[in-house]
Amino acid sequence: MIESLFVLSPTGKVIIEKHWHELIPRRVVDYFNDQVSKAMTAGEDITREDVLPIISSPKYQLINIYRDGLTYLSPVTKEVDPMMVFEFLHRIPDIMQEYFGQVSETVIKENFVTVYQLLEEMMDDGFPLTTEPNALKEIVPAPNILNKVITTMGASTSVSTRKMPNGMSNLPWRKAGVKYTSNEIFFDIVEEIDAIVDSTGKAVSCEAHGTILTNSRLSGMPDLTLSFVNPRLVDDCSFHSSVRFNKWESEKVLSFVPPDGHFRLMSYRVNLPSQQNLPIQVKPSINIGANGAKFDISVSLRNTEGKAVENVVLTLPLHKSTTTLTAHCNGGQYMFDPVAKVLRWDVGKIVPRERAPVLSGSFGFGTSSDAVANAGYNIGVEFVINSHSLSGLKVDVLKLFNESYKPYKGVRTMTKAGRYQVRA
Amino acid sequence: MYNVDAYLKSLTSNAVKLSKKVQDGIAENTRDFRFENQAHFLDTNDDKMREIRKNLDSRYEKEKLDGLKRLIAMISKGRDVSEFFPDVVKNVASNSLEVRKLVYIYILRYAEQEQDLALLSVNTFQKDLSDKNQLIRAMALRVMSGIRVPVISPIVMLGIKKCVTDLSPYVRKIAAHAIPKCYQLDPAQKDALLDIITTMLGDNSTFTIGSVLMAFNQVCPDRLDLIHPQYRKLCRMLVDMDEWGQITALDLLLRYSRTQFLNPIGKSTATTAARSKKEKSVAKSFYSDDDSDISHRSDESSDTSSDEDNNAVDLDLSFLLKCALPLLQSRNSQVVLSVAKLYMHLAPAEDSYKIGRPLVRLLRTHREIQYVVLNNIVAIASQRPYVFDQFYQHFFVRSTDPVFIRNLKLDILTLIATESNITFILRELQEYVKSSNKDLVTQAIQAIGRCASNIPEMAESCLGGLLNLSYSKSNSVVAESVVAIRRLLQQRPGDSVVMITQLTKALDEITEPLARANIFWLVGQYCSQLPTVAPDVLRKAAKSFCSESESSKLQVLTLGGKLVAQEGTLSRTINLLFQYVLNMARYDLDYNVRDRARFLRALVYGSQNGAAAATEQDVDDQESRPEEQRAVEGGLTEDVGGFEYSEKELNLSEHVKAILLSEKEAPVQENPSHGREQYKVGSMSLVLNRVVAGYEPLPDWPTTQPDPSVRRLAATMEAPGYMNDRTGFGSDSAYAQSRQGQGNSNMNSSGGMGSSRYDGQTGAYRGAETLDKFLESSEEESTDSDEDSSSESESESEESSAVEGSSDGDEEEEGSDEDEEEGDDDDEEEASSSEEEAILPTTVKRANGRK
Asked: Principal localization (chain B) (predicted)?
């Protein structure tokens, strides 16, 4: 049972307080803040992210998530499946994102009445009630521009007469009575590569995961069937609740009635061949001396099917004792953050068959010790390749039943770096 | 084609620009109206506070809204605004929904404090329960049941009764949610609520059923007998329920199955496969893919044959497992974990590989969810490491992982290491040793040590790696690796000589006290195998004794004692060395060292009374390595215990070798996460590794097979028509369900919450009693009735299966059964009142018996 929720600002102040069951006094928040600051001073490398998601207090278990600088804290008194609490707590910012476009302290304060209404609907007496964005939007109207115009222009009349929508659809995830003049549906196939690459360029671990993000703008109650040219490439899928599991099991097609608007249709793991070439190669070499180190990092393309790689960003966290850094590069810009001790190299776009960008330079340590000299380095890599899918997954046909119109179908693919790190 | 595309693109981009412009313009305007931003309500001063009351009394909805928003802002800021309750409650009947929704939020917050005033609002809610709009009906019931004022519990009860038969599944869902709330208000209502739950369990709407099960878990979690007739239906509906309903249902079905089936864990499904071919074909049709009704014929035959072969997994159980399997693909991580829980606690062990990959998939989500998943993986892997051993790459630590994730991953890596993946894991662990994070380095070295002790085949290369690390420039690495080596060597005495010689060579360079202490101990312990090295180590140690740390000094003393015990008092050099050390220690600043020296002197060179040993033992050192301490102490107490204290002349020196050089028990290397596996998968107790209040362990498996026929009633179970309005074509099993729905639409008019239960039973029983009679008897319902039913039905399974055959027949048979019942009515009346509630087999059997 999830009894209460406190949304805390980055400074630990209560922004939203909601009790679904009995009241839990606010002092629990003070206790929580104390524990967090205690935990964060325990070691030098500890950040807010390292604070445990479940903190025990004498009376409560303080289940908390930390997202976008905000803490969502839910004290519970009794045994409860913590995963359910986390799952629910994460739904709250998800839904606020859907409603307000972004989530921050200011946004919540600007829309606090709507937030309270949402929280009221999402949970009933400690049990999740309505968490589908589509269903919620029927009960609590989103503050979109149209609603604002109505409330503003005709404030005196329409507030009192606005009727509650009567037709709740049978499908919890889809609104009834959706109408569009042009019926379109867009699929974005995004594949992310998670990899750990060692200093010789060999992948220690490499995995690719895809998601199909969908934006549905279809009228009525369309029943869709999406088939792939090569469904065998995907493995270990998880689906939006609208997808019929059995159909996928038996025929490898996605059969579903889509929610209205944006949603994540499916995520999957890509069956990579055993020796998959990574699209990008980062070659670091760091020679550490007594008082400093020389480094040399180059980025080159491999196996991108002739496509350019964009938004390439490399981040190299340096040792805490690093004081000075000099470098030069033949492409992009680099920046050294002397407080966080992070070197960030914004390479930008790399076009095939062009000179590989190189960043070289040196950095010095304020204090030298053996531990500093032996430390290893990890380079975080980000990049995006448009119109490229690592797996080669292709959408074949989209069939529509139950409605008479012919929808426009748009498909885009994209490959990007997920959790990609190179060891130096 | 391209041109058209480009044209379209430019067109859309233009349109976007235009609409953006319009939006901006309007946004600009709205700002003037102060409607853009609700934040200004948050800055409240006393003037504004006074205004609130005025606003609430206003004739204009807009002003009321303003007042209410300001109130909610005050709640948000933590101020007590209960003084406004009378002003707010007046607005509960407002025409504006906006206003009313805010009023509800306020009322729910303060109703408990202002009970009398809260009663004023109840009337409006009651009226709203008959509103045309389903959302308003639902909202009224929600708020009414949410105001925790015990006096109104009968009214809430009425409201629930009314809404239970509502045509809208949403309203019924809300009604189900209201049941536990009503129970909390007034536990005396339990019996009536139980009736409602029983009725609602027959609901065929996937929208509603999850909430009904939630109510069941809250109000009467022990009445698992009510689940019997619904079991198969619940399994079938599982895939179509909403995600939170699935969680509740899986939880309930797990508890149910643990009490109703025999333990299949450890049994293989191969046994099932080995069953007769005839049976297999039957099973196949039984669980055919189309989710249609379960056919009786196959059911019976499967039951009879399962009597013959008790070893196989119960078909009902494997049906549940099969139905739950697709949920592993849910996007809700708790659903995935719930299925994993089901498989861990119910399925044959060899099926558990199915949960491996889905759980690993969850590692790609938020770190809090990773935290829970990893904790559960630790628990699962410590019992069944083979579930995860192929996914070792996923547990490699990333530089961005938070501390708690990192430590869990290292634990898992050591648990799942096998001969095939150990090389990769070891290489990875050695990579972590390079990290600049000290904590990670320590953990990684310990992990290498654990890997080596888990897989003896790999111990040699692990030891090699650790030895390399002991030459490291970092002190903490040296200390940890020497400790790890010492532990390993204790487990593998065979390798000791070479390794220890290697270590002693490094002794000159190693400065870390912990490492030195460990080396001294090792040399002392294995001094019999190191006849040349050991005395030299003692010599060196004697030389540097003053500059050693406390723990090293203690170990040097022990080393000397052991050497003397080994060589006897004959070797002069050793004796001199030891006495030199003892003398040094005698004047040491630390009392532990002084004590130890006295103790050893007395022990080795004989003393006046042996009692010294006993007293000294209490003041034993405070060594940092607990297992070592245990080993030393263990050796002592054992041997001392062997002496007879009655003897005045106790010569300890005769036994000194046995005391000092006794075989030390090798330390058991426990995983830091050890102990988690005793808790339910997914529970908070598992994550925290201790019992949290309210934790209920799973029920034990029954030792004898409970009657499997109780679930067979499900075949004819039908719900009143209003409950059959399934989710439309969006669901997985829509087609089968719509077929099922057709047959019983005629029943929905019979209304009344009571009758539906009877409608739900087999045709044989329907019409046997009049509705009035039923309602009467339901008043006298007693809980013990289900006991006799289960015990009776166990022995009578044959008979009831005979009834089964007749009851599912056509109209004619039904009619004849009805006659039977009516004829028996008179003599039954008295007895029946208490047994009325007993589930069907008993009653029908009785009727049948008279036939």
From this structure: membrane
